[in-house]
Amino acid sequence: NAGVTQTPKFRVLKTGQSMTLLCAQDMNHEYMYWYRQDPGMGLRLIHYSVGEGTTAKGEVPDGYNVSRLKKQNFLLGLESAAPSQTSVYFCASSKELAGVSTQYFGPGTRLTVL
Amino acid sequence: RKEVEQDPGPFNVPEGATVAFNCTYSNSASQSFFWYRQDCRKEPKLLMSVYSSGNEDGRFTAQLNRASQYISLLIRDSKLSDSATYLCAVNTQYGNQFYFGTGTSLTVIP
Question: Is residue B105 within 8 Å of B11, Cβ to Cβ?
């Protein structure tokens, strides 16, 4: 049981390049999330999904796209990377149990855009 | 106004001390509350959920005050290993979104 995994762990991009971050969870969770974490800003929600085939915008969605084609995977895409997207990206998943939802996080992806 | 606010600290306390963190939230419809621990360059990990009646897990006590819209975390008998950043989080059921505070940094000094 690996929990939540993220690929890659590190990446350096040049401005304008594109890339996809992969998140996978093996806990059969319905909900999945992408956050970015920057110093002094805390965790900010980019996009999230409440089930396979559904996605929704979070607090800071601009410049990102997502897809949830399979329940266990949630992909985050950067079409044209900008230096402002330099950040640590965390994926998380959750499942409601007895009216309470608890999030579990992946180990993060450190992205630098030059 | 931010959904969740917390004092960033840093808190520097000696071993054995008791330290408390508070976190306020703005949405009265928030339903679930959590404290997470985050070590440097690692992912947040759930420390404990916060229940209406308050709850305790060893040296850690969490409390919720719905009337004043804040949650608190009390750490007793601080250990060096408690040094980390503590994040509070609240959850509404609108798309099952979670909102996090910016985190409070704690350093326990020998």
Answer: yes
Q: Do B43 and A94 touch (CB under 8 A)?
A: no
Q: Is A90 on the interface with B (CB under 8 A)?
A: yes
- Give phi and psi for A84, each to the nearest 5: -65, -10
On whether the CB atoms of residues A19 and A112 are closer than 8 A, the answer is no
Q: Any CB–CB contact under 8 A between B97 and chain A?
A: yes
Residue B99's DSSP bridge partners are B90
Rounded to whole angstroms, the Cα distance separating A111 from A8 reads: 9
Contact B8/A40, CB-based, under 8 Å?
A: yes
Q: Residue A39: which residues within 8 A CB-CB, separation 6 or more?
A: none
**Chain A touched by B55 (CB under 8 Å):** no
Q: Which among B34, B46, B102 has the least Cβ separation from residue A40?
A: B102
Q: What is the pLDDT of residues B18-51, one digit of tens each?
A: 999 999 999 888 888 999 999 998 999 999 999 8
Biggest CA–CA distance in chain B, Å, is: 44
